[in-house]
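Anyone up for a design puzzle?
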């Protein structure tokens, strides 16, 4: 009868370097495919959230007008002075009724977007120009046509 040594009785088998390398490579490929889709989804959710915020603040400004006969001078007048958009930028409010059309947001033909007040988020980049067709303003989430349109400036 032949006896084997206990050291050779149990054979421990692990992963080879090639197997580990292929598993890491596969995980990397899956991440490379999934991350852009996830980033696009996150931006879409943030845009929807900004639109909802603008709808609510717009309704509050309209209610303020019905109660006081004038639009608020700032978002603080309707209790939203410290509110920021989903990207961390403060919402911008401009009372056209009280301050005139000089600093109001404008379309491609330089016509004001609203006649009552402007309310918008500077969007993901935090940059904005008065004319919404300029590059810095295309990603802004805005209120236009006196509240008939709330959405991305590029879609207006």
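Challenge accepted. My sequence:
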């Amino acid at each position: 009868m032949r006896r084997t040594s206990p050291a050779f009785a149990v054979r421990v088998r692990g992963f080879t370097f090639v197997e580990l390398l292929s598993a890491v490579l596969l995980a990397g490929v899956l991440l490379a495919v999934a991350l852009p889709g996830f980033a696009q989804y996150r931006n879409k959710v943030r845009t929807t959230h900004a639109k909802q915020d603008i709808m609510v603040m717009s309704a509050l400004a309209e209610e303020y007008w019905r109660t006081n006969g004038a639009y608020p001078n700032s978002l603080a007048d309707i209790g939203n002075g410290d509110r920021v958009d989903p990207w961390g930028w403060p919402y911008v409010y401009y009372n056209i009724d009280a301050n005139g059309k000089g600093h109001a947001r404008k379309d491609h033909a330089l016509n004001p977007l609203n006649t009552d007040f402007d309310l918008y988020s500077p969007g993901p980049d935090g940059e904005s120009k008065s004319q919404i067709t300029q590059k810095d303003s295309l990603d802004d989430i805005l209120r236009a046509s006196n509240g008939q349109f709330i959405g991305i400036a590029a879609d207006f």
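A detail worth pointing out: The beta strands are 92-95, 117-121, 141-144, 149-152.
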